Every structure is written in structure tokens, then in C-alpha cells.
From TrEMBL:
Belongs to the acyl-CoA dehydrogenase family. This is Acyl-CoA dehydrogenase, short-chain specific. Residues 226-374 form the Acyl-CoA dehydrogenase/oxidase C-terminal domain. It comes from Caulobacter vibrioides (strain NA1000 / CB15N). It is an enzyme of class 1 (oxidoreductase). Keywords: FAD, Flavoprotein, Oxidoreductase. The keyword Flavoprotein applies. Its cofactor is FAD. Its EC number is 1.3.8.1. PANTHER family: ACYL-COA DEHYDROGENASE, ACYL-COA DEHYDROGENASE FADE28.
Length: 382
């Protein structure tokens, strides 16, 4: 697929690549992980200085109001250099949802996001929700001056370092309905909220939440009461596409590492790359990377389309990139041999990251099933 960048977009891509090359040292990455840092705060502030955290902040709120392509090129660099930053949660999903918040909240939170001073996490999953975004059992009850939230969230992306959470809760309708869903901003330190922090296999700090009668003011409602699902769907779609770009960046990086290893590692008196069987596997990895890139481009373009068609394209892209990314990651580890499984080698960490990207917002199997359901006669996209 041809996907030509404008001059400004190409400059942004080159800048992101240079930044990653200058600051993406794997030894320093491992040191931060071993210290238990939730994210690279210094790098996050530098990204704010470069304006990358303003990409998805509307111009009316002091941001750049950029499109999906600009987000894609930065997310690809984040994946390529395994950057330990909450870019998708705080730089993509949060500002997309905050556009529907009150003017006072936008003025406060958008500035904090753009300056790299806040981390805002979407609590996107529930214990019995599986990967279905509309399965929401958490309830919001109107009380004097606001709403009381009760329920549990099993996953909040980058929630281990979050200052605020965006919590979808149901104000009306059944637990699996797209109607009656409302979105609320909840500060991390509020009474009644228990944040259980966890460290995922890719060393990202996520969280699960327990809301025991958490009371938030009415001003913390994002969008209209009971009208939050379309906002949620749009924001998560944008987050999914940014995740696809991360995966493509990581795939390219791990393939290049593997090619270099095959060119230098010798066995039986010759380099591994001289063996025809391994050459075939290297070619298959290259094809998988190009296929994933084409699907990423298609999904990026689809973000500007109608919601129903957009969902079909993004589901197809998420399913296929999930399959190809895991193939490339596993091949990279296998072709490195036993050393590929060690903590000291980057390829093992790239594979873990690709596994978690595949799981985010539904794995390949889930999106393949969702796509199949949407293609049935009379089907309505979720």
C-alpha cells in the first residue's frame, strides 16, 4: 500500500527516529525496569517539550489538533525503541475523551497532559467483560451534587502511575448494552477508590480498581449522561491504531536485530545467514513486517471514515497485526537460540511487549470473531 507522508509528517517521523536513536539505550532501559520505575519521566518531559503530547489536544485547548497519521509516526518510534512511556493511554486516548469534558476540566487537564505533568488512564475492562467494551457492570447513581460510583475495573492501562482515571459506568440499561454508559473523571486519591497496582510481563505498570461508593461532582461527567459509549468507542479505536503502530515499530526493530545476528553469528565455520533454511525464515519475517505495516496504514486511514466501516477495518487490522507480530517476535527469539530467552538480550523484551500489545483491547482471536460477526447480514458493529 502506498502511504506518502507530507513534508511536515516526514519531519516529525525523522525527529521521532532521531530521538529514539539518541535516547533508546537498552542498558538504560533495563536499569529503569530494575529500579521499578513505572515510566521514564525524563523522556516523557522531553517528549512534551518536543510537542508530541500535544498532537491529540485540540487547538482550542492549546494543542496541535493533529490527525491520526502524526500519532502513527510517533507511536511507531515508541515501539521501535521500546520507550517506557504512557503514550497511548495519556497521549492518545485521554485527550480524545477529554474533548467532551467541561471547559474548566479541559483547561486544567489538557495543559497537564501537554506538559507531561499528568498521567490519565482509561479503566477499560471489567472482571466479567472479557474484551467486550460495552460489557460494563460498574454503576453510577445520581446523588446530590454528583454521582456515586460502585463496581470494579480489572484493567487500567498505565494505571500504576495514573493521577486520574476515566471510568466508564452504567447509569441505565443492561450490562451488555451500548446505551446508558457514562464516563467519569476520577482522581487517583479520592475516598472510596482502591487502586491495586501491578506490573505486566512487558514491565508496564497497570492497575485494577475497586470503587466502593466513590462520589464525584457532576462536573466530572464527560459528555452527556448515558451517551458515553460512542466517545469511548472512538477513543479506544484511536488507541488500538496507535498500538498497531507500536507493534510495527517493534517488529521492524526485532527483525533488524535478528538479521544482524544471522550475519555475524557463526556455526560450522560459516555465518547463520548462509543457511538456506534460515534465509527462508528471514524472508517470511520481512513479509510479515510489510503485511503488518500495510494493515496499520489501512487502519490509520479508516479512523477518518464512518464508524461502522471503521470498526470492520480496525478489527481486521488488529487481528492480522496480532498474528504477524507474534510470528516475527517468536521467530526472532528462536533464531537467536538459547540466548534469545535471556533478560540481557533485547529481543526477549520485544517479544513480551508484542504479546501485551496483541492482548490490549482484545487479542487477534477476539477481533477476528468481531469482524466475522459484523459481516453477518443485519449485524450492528459494537
Amino acid at each position: 500500500m502506498n502511504f506518502d507522508l507530507s513534508e511536515e509528517q516526514q519531519l516529525l517521523k525523522d525527529s521521532a527516529r532521531r530521538y529514539g536513536a539518541d535516547h533508546g539505550d537498552f542498558t538504560a532501559w533495563r536499569a529503569r525496569v530494575e529500579r521499578g520505575e513505572a515510566y521514564d519521566a525524563a523522556s516523557w518531559r522531553r517528549m512534551a517539550d518536543l510537542g508530541w503530547l500535544m498532537l491529540n489536544v485540540p487547538e482550542d485547548d492549546g494543542g496541535l489538533g493533529a490527525g491520526p497519521t502524526e500519532t502513527m509516526v510517533v507511536a511507531e518510534a515508541v515501539g521501535r525503541y521500546l520507550m517506557l512511556v504512557p503514550f497511548v493511554s495519556t497521549g492518545v486516548i485521554a485527550p480524545t475523551l477529554l474533548t467532551a469534558a467541561t471547559e474548566a476540566l479541559r483547561a486544567h487537564l489538557m495543559a497537564g497532559l501537554a506538559e507531561g505533568k499528568l498521567v490519565i488512564s482509561l479503566a477499560d475492562a471489567e472482571p466479567n467483560g472479557r474484551f467486550d467494551l460495552n460489557r460494563i457492570a460498574t454503576r453510577a447513581e445520581a446523588v446530590e451534587g454528583g454521582f456515586r460510583l460502585t463496581g470494579a475495573k480489572s484493567h487500567a492501562l498505565d494505571g500504576g502511575a495514573a493521577d486520574w482515571f476515566i471510568v466508564p459506568a452504567r447509569t441505565t440499561a443492561a450490562d451488555d448494552s451500548q446505551d446508558g454508559v457514562s464516563l467519569f473523571l476520577v482522581p487517583a486519591e479520592i475516598e472510596g477508590l482502591t487502586v491495586m497496582r501491578s506490573r505486566a510481563m512487558d514491565n508496564r505498570h497497570n492497575a485494577s480498581l475497586k470503587l466502593d461508593g466513590v462520589v464525584v461532582p457532576a462536573a466530572n461527567l464527560i459528555g452527556g449522561l448515558g451517551e458515553g459509549f460512542p466517545l469511548l468507542r472512538d477513543a479506544v479505536d484511536r488507541g488500538v491504531v496507535a498500538r498497531l503502530a507500536e507493534a510495527v515499530g517493534a517488529m521492524d526493530a526485532v527483525r533488524e536485530m535478528t538479521m544482524e545476528y544471522l550475519k555475524t553469528r557463526k556455526q560450522f565455520g560459516q555465518t547463520l545467514g548462509a543457511f538456506q533454511a534460515l534465509q527462508h525464515r528471514a524472508v517470511d519475517m520481512a513479509i510479515a513486517c510489510e503485511e503488518a505495516r500495510s494493515m496499520m496504514y489501512l487502519a490509520t486511514l479508516a479512523l477518518s471514515g464512518a464508524p461502522v466501516e471503521r470498526r470492520k477495518v480496525i478489527a481486521a487490522a488488529k487481528a492480522r497485526v496480532g498474528q504477524t507480530s507474534l510470528y516475527v517476535g517468536r521467530q526472532a527469539v528462536q533464531l537467536h537460540g538459547g540466548v534469545g530467552f535471556t533478560e540481557e538480550l533485547a529481543v526477549a523484551h520485544y517479544l513480551k511487549r508484542l504479546i501485551m500489545i496483541d492482548m490490549a483491547f482484545g487479542n487477534a482471536d477476539h477481533h477476528r470473531a468481531e469482524l466475522a460477526a459484523s459481516l453477518r447480514p443485519g449485524a450492528v458493529a459494537a
